[in-house]
Amino acid sequence: MASLSHFLIITVLFIVPFFSCCVNAQLSANFYARTCPTLPTMVRNAMRQAVSREGRMAASILRLFFHDCFVNGCDASILLDDTATFTGEKNAFPNRNSARGFEVIDTIKTRVEAACNATVSCADILALAARDGVVLLGGTSWTVALGRRDARTASQTDANNQLPSPFANLATLISNFAAKGLTATDMTVLSGGHTLGQSQCSSFKTRIYNETNIDPAFATTRKRTCPASGGDTNLAPFDITPNRFDNEYYKALVARRGLLHSDQELFNGGSQDALVTTYSNNVAAFTRDFAAAMVKMSAISPLTGTNGEIRKNCRLVN
Ligand code: HEM
Ligand SMILES: *[C@@H]1O[C@H](CO)[C@@H](O)[C@H](O)[C@H]1NC(C)=O
Ligand SMILES: *[C@@H]1O[C@H](CO)[C@@H](O)[C@H](O)[C@H]1NC(C)=O
User: Which enzyme class, named as a word (predicted)?
Assistant: First the structure.
């Protein structure tokens, strides 16, 4: 009797938790608490340095994470370099000459490997860095669940097909996000990432020259640095405060000053108008909901357990 109850206690205390940890393969905030306790501090310090050097870097890293998660999950696939025998996602249309911040991830990875080698995935580093960039520029923080592993593959085709286009209409944007398990509300909240950063002229040229649901004074201003012909890589901010995580993006949409066609689709007489108006009037509601939606986006199809690998160099499969 005593030995049976001992057996049961041992089973419940040790074996059950062991299996529930690995079979369910859940992400958890304390995944590296014992194996790399300084990880959060290393990422935060590196992001503070990078963002103080260039405020836009918070935006670029946030976008990298979005483009990672939307293509077969948050698995660092976007970080893999093309080689003679491998085609990754970096040269997919939405990323080529546009995705940036890879060197910052390299710097963080180098420091993390020095402190805790072969332990922390590039996918987790990117998830933490994206959060820290947002917080550094005034966003609300969220808890990053960890334990993602890194992909051994990437897909340029999937990146081309699954990342949303700046020329998309509302229905297409909603379905792009639905394909990732995200609602129309999530889509409108996450598009608020465009409170940070800049876009190249080629992505908004047609809008400022040929669309009618645009504030004429705004179109005139944008045309000064985005000519009808040429200047395709010239940059313009998404809102008037590209280095502050605030609700100016939504105020711009209400004023018909959305930069991309896809931005203005969120406030163009459709289903998202009311939410855009709410966020334009309530920055706290936006930053709170953005944090919650980032938690959802961060959980898209992670590799866990024994799937994937812990890359040594974020640019290369081991
Ligand atoms: C809703 C569909 C979306 C579309 C069509 C879209 C499209 C774009 C485009 C075309 C650019 C400019 C790229 C360039 O000119 O080089 C851009 C930049 C950016 N996007 Fe999005 N995006 C979307 C959603 C998101 C989401 C969900 C996030 C993050 C949560 C995000 C974060 C950013 C950031 C921060 C930038 C600025 C990057 C920088 O300055 O380096 N975007 N996006
Ligand atoms: C990690 O570092 C230790 C000590 O420098 C070294 O012996 C070990 O081979 C490294 N492990 C990997 C997987 O690189
Ligand atoms: C605007 O539309 C006209 C007529 O369709 C077209 O010729 C022109 O190339 C367009 N301009 C831009 C910048 O898209």
Answer: oxidoreductase
